[in-house]
């Protein structure tokens, strides 16, 4: 059986009305066009074209797309023209091939400005015809599968580009099978030591884990059958990159992540999904807070499923997904699954267009962003971040990027609601407009006709829609103000506002402690332990710098002469501030430092110094020296910082560490 015959046979399984002759003609044309061309692997170039077509067939795409997949390199690597393709295969196939060719010329490793513009072009091409990016993803997947034949520098750059651009885009389009393989292959080339270490550990535990999962599947299948629910129950494989990211993000070792058992239940209909959920929760104890209903609230990439986690009989944790066969196809193939429904008439054009509405809205909002850095940041948030689902008081579900604030929510409801947003409530209590929304929050926006958008909102809003609307409103307001000033210059009297008074900064006073039986002694506070009012302290008489005050238990106190240790206490007479050093550890992400600084400044705390750096393991360290009044004041600040997304540790440190 020839390669094209095998492709035609697979197409016929899911689309009996398919134009198989078109695929056969495209194969013959590609065979003639690429005759004599060889890949670096030594394989005929045509083998790449057929592999791309096989991946598209596996996504159950239409024959026009598969034909374009076979021809996708003709314009790039041969002398054939678009006009020749159009004459032979029609305008649609020629347009798709040209779109893939143009996308292949975009480079994502240039300056940030060029990178932003190239991503914008790629998204525009995607919005015009989703099949262009589907062909490109299939092309990229096969290139990654054969990447080892390229020079090392190209292997690194292509893998990084795949992980940063193509894998997240596949995720947003809901194509899990392509996203997972792209991520695993990228990890293999970018971090081979980590990849092969994970591969070895997975292989070691494979037999044991497969038996445990099979026992769970057998038990669950029997209970479902008793209840009259026909379903397929299988183990759910964990991908290497997924394991790696969880180890980094959750700071857990391999055994803690891999010990999670993962099952999937695929039912015949929607009703049985919820019936199966009831059986699962009857068999095992549900883990509180781990149930998510993505059937009632689908993700933006059309993903639908019930997610739950339970504790098995031996206390082991089991994660379970429950979905119908159609939902399972969508989970694997994403937008590609619905393209075929549209082509065959099983889904209306209007409904299909609704599924791409998020992408078109994103492009509309991104058009207003001229600054490349802001464009890239908005893109990462809107396209590549997770989601948070919140509710209006009337129960309407609003989906927003993770990290969105009350102001983002207001603009998602309506532009006027956002522009007039004065305050917000979450779950019935007042919250700051900067409040980061959590899953399931019921959010209410309080408006005022006198309210207008403030420029500082741009410092914390997350969505492109909110940024775009705020900027537009500020621009209109500034133009109106310019008009008023022009009128005043033409002869209208101008009212002069009195100058604002400057608040004088009170001079800092020296910290004060009481020393039994001594007065007029020079006192200094040790930088090794940063004593603050409220700490238990002890005095140490130095040889040349007076009395050094340390926190009790400070390891730098050398007790070679107990007579040099003095009992001291805070006298509490003077109001002053003291330098305190803190170290923050967090999962690295965009705007992390800005968010931590904002949490400190909201408490009107002066920041004497700030230093932050990222580490290779995906974490970040932030060191601060701040001015506080006492230990209680410092604890309040530490608590506020711990509420920042991604922060997992805040502790006092040495001033020397933060200097």
CATH-defined topology of the largest domain: Hypothetical protein af1432
Low-confidence stretches: 340-353, 491-511
Any idea what the CATH architecture of the largest domain is? Orthogonal Bundle
Distance between the termini: 71 Å
- Helix proportion of residues, in percent? 40-55%
Major pleated sheet:
6 strands, mixed
> How large is the radius of gyration?
31 Å
Q: What is the approximate shape?
A: globular
Would you identify the CATH H-level superfamily of the largest domain?
Hypothetical protein af1432
Total count of strands? 20
Round the mean pLDDT to the nearest integer and report it: 79
CATH top level class name of the largest domain? Mainly Alpha
Integer tally of domains: 5
Structure annotation, total helices = 26
Provide the structure class: alpha+beta
Portion of residues in beta strands equals: 15-25%
Overview of the molecule:
InterPro entries: ACT-like_dom_sf, ACT_dom, Beta-grasp_dom_sf, HD/PDEase_dom, HD_domain, NT_sf, RelA/Spo_fam, RelA_SpoT. This is Bifunctional (P)ppGpp synthetase/guanosine-3',5'-bis(Diphosphate) 3'-pyrophosphohydrolase. Residues 471-513 are annotated as: Disordered. It is built from 26 helices and 20 strands. With 659 residues, it is of the alpha+beta class. The protein starts with a helix and ends with a helix.
């Amino acid at each position: 059986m020839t390669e094209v015959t095998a492709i035609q046979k697979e197409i016929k399984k899911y689309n009996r009305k398919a134009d198989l002759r078109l695929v056969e003609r495209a194969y013959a044309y590609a065979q003639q066009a690429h005759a004599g061309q060889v890949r670096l692997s030594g394989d005929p170039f045509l083998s790449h074209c057929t592999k791309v077509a096989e991946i598209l067939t596996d996504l159950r795409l239409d024959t026009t797309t598969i034909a374009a997949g076979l021809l996708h390199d003709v314009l790039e690597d041969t002398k054939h023209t678009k006009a020749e393709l159009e004459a032979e295969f029609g305008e649609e196939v020629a347009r798709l091939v040209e779109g893939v060719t143009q996308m292949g010329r975009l480079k994502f490793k240039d300056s940030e400005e060029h990178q932003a513009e190239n991503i914008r072009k790629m998204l525009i091409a995607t919005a015009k015809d989703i099949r262009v990016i589907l062909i490109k993803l299939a092309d990229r997947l096969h290139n990654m599968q054969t990447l080892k034949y390229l020079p090392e520098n190209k292997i690194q750059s292509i893998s990084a580009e795949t992980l940063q651009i193509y894998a997240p885009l596949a995720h947003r389009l809901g194509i899990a099978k392509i996203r997972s393989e792209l991520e695993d292959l990228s990890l293999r080339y970018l971090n081979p030591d980590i990849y092969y270490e994970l591969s070895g550990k997975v292989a070691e535990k494979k037999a044991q884990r497969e038996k445990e999962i099979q026992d769970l599947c057998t038990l669950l299948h029997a209970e479902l059958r008793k209840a009259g629910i026909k379903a397929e129950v299988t183990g759910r494989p964990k991908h290497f990159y997924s394991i790696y990211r969880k180890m980094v993000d959750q700071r857990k070792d391999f055994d803690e992540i891999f010990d999670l058992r993962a099952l999937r239940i695929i039912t015949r209909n929607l009703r049985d999904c919820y019936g199966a959920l009831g059986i699962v929760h009857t068999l095992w104890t549900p883990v509180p807070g781990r149930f998510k209903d993505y059937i009632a609230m689908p993700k933006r990439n059309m993903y639908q499923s019930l997610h739950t986690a339970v504790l098995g009989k031996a206390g082991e944790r089991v994660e379970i997904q429950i979905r119908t066969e159609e939902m399972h196809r969508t989970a694997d193939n994403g937008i590609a699954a619905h393209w075929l429904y549209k082509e065959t008439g099983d889904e209306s054009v209007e409904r299909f267009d609704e599924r791409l509405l998020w992408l078109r809205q994103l492009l509309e909002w991104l058009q207003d962003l001229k600054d490349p850095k802001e464009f890239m940041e908005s893109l990462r948030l809107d396209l590549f971040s997770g989601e948070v689902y919140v509710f209006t008081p009337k129960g309407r579900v609003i989906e927003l990027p993770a990290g969105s604030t009350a102001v983002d929510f207001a603009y998602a409801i309506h532009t006027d609601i956002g522009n007039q947003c004065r305050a917000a409530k979450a779950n019935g209590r007042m919250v700051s407009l900067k409040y980061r929304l959590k899953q399931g929050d019921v959010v209410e926006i309080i408006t005022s006709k006198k309210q207008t958008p403030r420029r500082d909102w741009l410092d914390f809003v997350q969505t492109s829609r909110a940024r775009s609307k705020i900027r537009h409103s500020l621009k209109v307001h500034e133009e109106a103000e310019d008009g008023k000033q022009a009128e005043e210059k033409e002869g209208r009297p101008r009212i002069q506002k009195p100058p604002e008074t400057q608040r004088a900064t009170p001079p800092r006073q020296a910290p004060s402690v009481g020393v039994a039986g001594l007065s007029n002694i020079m006192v200094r506070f040790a930088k090794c332990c940063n004593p603050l009012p409220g700490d238990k302290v002890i005095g140490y008489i130095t040889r040349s710098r007076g009395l050094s005050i340390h926190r009790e238990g400070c390891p730098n106190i050398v007790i070679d002469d107990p007579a040099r240790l003095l009992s001291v206490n805070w006298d509490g007479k003077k109001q002053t501030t003291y330098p305190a050093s803190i170290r923050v550890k967090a999962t690295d992400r965009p705007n992390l430092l800005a968010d931590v600084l904002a949490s400190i400044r909201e408490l009107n705390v002066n920041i004497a110094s700030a230093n932050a750096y990222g580490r290779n393991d995906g974490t970040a360290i932030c060191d601060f020296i701040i001015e506080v009044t006492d230990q209680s004041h410092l604890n309040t600040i530490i608590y506020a910082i711990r509420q920042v997304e991604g922060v997992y540790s805040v502790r006092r440190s040495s001033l020397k560490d933060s200097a």
